[in-house]
Amino acid sequence: MADDLELRFERTVQAEARIEPRDWMPDGYRKTLIRQIAQHAHSEIIGMQPEGNWISRAPSLRRKAILLAKVQDEAGHGLYLYSATETLGADREDLTTKLIEGRQKYSSIFNYPTLTFADVGVIGWLVDGAAICNQVPLCRTSYGPYARAMIRICKEESFHQRQGYELLMTMMRGTQQQRDMVQDSVNRWWWPALMMFGPPDAESTNTEQSMAWRIKRDTNDELRQKFVNMSVPQAEALGVTFPDPELKWNEERGQYDFGSPDWDEFWQVVKGGGVCNEQRVAHRRKAHEDGAWVREAAAAHAAKHAPSKEGAA
Amino acid sequence: MSTTWPLWEVFVRGKRGLNHVHVGSLHAPDAEMALRNARDVYTRRNEGVSIWVVPATEITASSPDEKDPFFAPSGDKVYRHPTFYAIPEDVPHL
Ligand SMILES: [Fe+2]
Ligand SMILES: [Fe+2]
């Protein structure tokens, strides 16, 4: 019987059909999905902080409205994804606890500080750009609720990337000081953006099984290469350079060659040693704890106004 | 008292003339808040003209394990589909 179920699961995945919440699935598949989707959801939620840092200091009402809408979208993305984990039997409260206790991870990119307003533009262009590269193939991931959440998210991400790029174009048309600010920001974000695709394939422990289950659709290195190929012409159009002396077009491969990110730095940030790790988690914890009275009050209000079931019985 | 708000399933009518379609879920203390949260989470870009929220515990679903017998009645009734009927090519508007 168990073999039967497993066979049906495998056939469904092979046929590019989707696994849905009430289907039988291997324990490992469920666990991997919960871990990956939760980590993704946490990234969206923590990812509000670096940019949220600039909402009150946006240089115009237009930029402020755009940034608010963008950060609000990221909150929405986190919620779509938490909702997907719940279809797998995860408990949202439990996931939040794991995040604020440092027991579950989020993307390391958000542990870098946003030092200037140009960072808002560069995050939209490169960080959301890298996220799009990662996420577009996930629209075909084998788990239905995850794939559907990704479709919604991808639709919204293109606004994120374009507003960032447009912001940078505006700054590049400004003063020399503004142009320098953009270049400085690109210099700081380029390598962390490349790290967003995860460690090199040779060191990536989860890739093979996840590819077999069609949770993951492309390897880390494939996606990283794709991102570099897409970004170089955009940098040229903008008038900035990437801080990589090895970056050049390879006629034979029909792709760009590029240098290797500092993987020691990557692991250090993953393990908690980034500039902002502590601050990000502490801020999330504070928001959660400060909101406790609201959750309690709303629950009390709802209980008071709920039609009494016992009374009716 | 548990402060974990109950889970609600959200259905959105994309535009007039279409059915409500399931879009996801959210937590809210009551139906009214669930509707408000659904508006903010699922319809930030005019994705809908009407929203339903239903407590997740109130939904009864067929289980995939009984899928075959449950959906079997329609499986052998091909005559319910218009393509079952061969109509000569030169008969218009059919
Ligand atoms: Fe996002
Ligand atoms: Fe985004």
Describe the protein:
The complex is a heterodimer of chains A (313) and B (94). With 313 residues, chain A is mainly alpha-helical. Chain A is 66% helix and 2% strand. Chain A has a single domain, classed as Ferritin. Chain A has 14 helices and two strands. Chain A has a two-stranded antiparallel ribbon with strand order 1-2. Chain A starts with a helix and ends with a helix. With 94 residues, chain B is α+β, with helices and mostly antiparallel strands. Chain B has a domain at 2-61: Roll (Ubiquitin-like (UB roll)), CATH 3.10.20. Chain B has helices at residues 31-42, 67-75, and strands at 7-13, 20-27, 50-55. Chain B has a three-stranded antiparallel β-sheet with strand order 2-1-3, with helices on one face. Chain A binds chain B through residues 20, 22-24, 69, 72-73, 76, 79-80, 83-84, 86-87, 91-93, 145, 148-149, 152, 156, 292, 295-296, 298-303, 305-306, and chain B through 1-5, 7, 23-27, 29-30, 33, 40-41, 44-45, 61, 63-65. The complex binds fe (ii) ion (FE2) (2 copies). One fe (ii) ion binds next to helix 6 and helix 7 of chain A. Chain B: This is Ring-1,2-phenylacetyl-CoA epoxidase subunit PaaB. Chain B: It comes from Lentzea jiangxiensis. Chain B: Pfam families: PaaB. Chain B: InterPro entries: PaaB, PaaB_sf.
Short description:
With 313 residues, chain A is mainly alpha-helical.
Q: What key attributes describe this structure?
A:
heterodimer; A: mainly alpha; Ferritin; 2 strands; 66% helix; globular; B: 94 residues; alpha+beta; Ubiquitin-like (UB roll); 3 strands; elongated
